[in-house]
Amino acid sequence: MRLTRTSIVIALLALAACGQKVTVSVDADPLLETLAPSAGADASAKFVSPGGDHIGNATLTNSSNGVLIRVDLEGLPQGWHGIHLHQVGDCSDGDGGFKASKGHINPDGNEHGLLNDAGYERADMPNIYAGSDGRTTASFFNSYVRLNASEEAFAAVGDGAILMDEDSFAMIVHANPDDHLTQPIGGAGPRIACAAFK
Predict the structure, then answer these.
(1) Could you report the per-residue pLDDT of 62-91, keeping only the tens digit for each?
(2) Which H or E run contains 136?
(3) Residue 72: which of 16, 29, 19 has the closest Cα?
(4) How far apart are CA 183 and CA 95, in angstroms?
(5) What is the CATH number of the domain that holds 70?
(6) Each residue of 138-196: pLDDT tens digit?
(7) Which residues pair with 58 in a beta bridge?
(8) CB hemisphere CA count around 18 (13 angstroms)
(9) Model pTM?
């Protein structure tokens, strides 16, 4: 049985009515507290909904071999969702579909899709899954980008695949799953969450 805040409050009121002493400490927003940027992360950003609500966080940890990415979100429709890295760190136009983040990071001009023999883009990542409560937590590694510019980073990934460049980057969650084949975005559909890294 899944307890909601409402069912907990009703149970506590019933206990109090029966003369039971009840002491409760309720965090005002326990989910988003657990979504705080993880210690040791090199970059973090808040996910926002199209309406501008804070619905989660993303953290990135740089390494010489790539970037470890962690995402934690709430309030997503149940099911699989495409998630990609976008060229510009701008989530200011949620009501316009987060188009200010521009297209995928793709300095090589590859076709889209992790399953595409002619692909894939450096922006492409595995789908994430939101449960029936709208919650998703995922961690994955992208070896085709680096967070910050350095001689070693440029040697490894080349120009255009450094995430924290002059206009930074965004992470976008889509309404639908990415099939990792269909052009240009695998049928992932509208942009429903955005995290702008600065």
Answers:
(1) 998 999 999 999 999 999 999 999 999 999
(2) strand 136-142
(3) 29
(4) 24
(5) 2.60.40.200
(6) 999 999 999 999 998 999 999 899 999 999 999 999 999 999 999 999 999 999 999 99
(7) 45, 71
(8) 8
(9) 0.80
Domain coverage including residue 66:
32-197
CA distance 85 to 60: 12
Tally the domains of the chain: 1
Beta-carbon contacts of residue 165 (< 8 Å; ≥ 6 apart): 149
Residue 20 lies in a domain: no
**How long a stretch of residues is the chain?**
198
Residue 14 lies in a domain: no
Token pair for 51: 């309406």
pLDDT score at 159: 86
In degrees, rounded to 5, the angle at the alpha carbon of residue 73 between the alpha carbons of residues 70 and 79 is: 105
